[in-house]
Design goal:
alpha/beta; Rossmann fold; 2 domains; 14 helices; 14 strands; 40% helix
Amino acid sequence: MVIAIVVDLIDNKTNGSVITAIRFAEGLRARGHEVRMVAIGADGENDCPVKERYVPILTEVSALNQIKFGKFDKKRIKKAFEGVDIVHLIFPFKLEKKCKQLADKMGIPTTAAFHVQPENVSYNAHLSWCRPFNSLVYAYFKQTYYKKFNRIHCPSAFIAGQLAEHGYNNELYVISNGYDPAFVPAETPRRPNDKFEIVMTGRLAPEKNQQVLIKAISHSKHKDDIHLTLLGNGPKKKMLAKLAERLNIDVTFDFLPKEKLIAKLQNSDLYVHAATVEIEAIAALEAIACGLVPVIADSKCSATPQFALDERSLFEDNNEYSLAEKIDYWYERTAERQRMGKIYAESAKKYSLDRSLERAERMFADEIRDANRKDLKKMQFVPVIQNN
């Protein structure tokens, strides 16, 4: 297939959705497909680079969360779309909307991904308490964008369920974003760390809730023997640093390239994912694939609890005392933690990138097949969730 992937930017490797788009493009190319990226920073032979679109206020706010908006360039994008079999669109922003319109006019089948969880919007707008706001965002996305697609890529069964609940009458394909196969357990036993190493990866933003992890460590019986590493950037970094200093928590803030990230995960003792809002959390999956036992916030707005194999890896969402209990449990059981780490690493394999790419190929093929049917306009999709 010749596949065009539209994503506002690919020049920021700290955004999870961007990393996913790049990983999918590289994986599809490795499987023999031609992939053309339409994005800020696209520089491949058949790619279509676009300029940044400035949106007053929103551009500045979005930049804090590693998002930039691409500017639609009809002439260049139309040329990039010539000869493609399908166009896959990552975000529900203006660039993607314009590209959807163009693809429709050119008679090219399209599919969309659902990567922007409305709760991400509400948390960053300090409206996390307002459920009607989230429902309004789901409705806005549906009416202005997603209702125009037959098929939607959902990174988790959780978000597919949310879309069905909010009246999305599309065929919903549950396809994990997939983790890089380089994330594996260490080949040789490592030496014990000077301190018990806890790590969390993710944007330093309100919905990721790193502050509850810092507070939990302050309540741990083993506080003085714990070192925390928070991997990521974001608007909450200064606040988190001040909180850790006030509570006398030994913490390091960092952002690591892939090779060093793998080494860090392989040499840590416990992974905590405290996020209240999460469509999937590939960061948690990467840690699990490296053989780390996770402790995950059991949030109703997060898909990440799907990775927990039992209750010992779940804590009550936003409850620092519940998290402190789980940290102490795993701190005090080295042998059990090592045993479960191997089991967790094996469990991650069902979310491999190869499996995700196979499912994406099926989604693309289904859409191309139906686009060639003359009676497509007469068809009505119901929210069928494709899990395999």
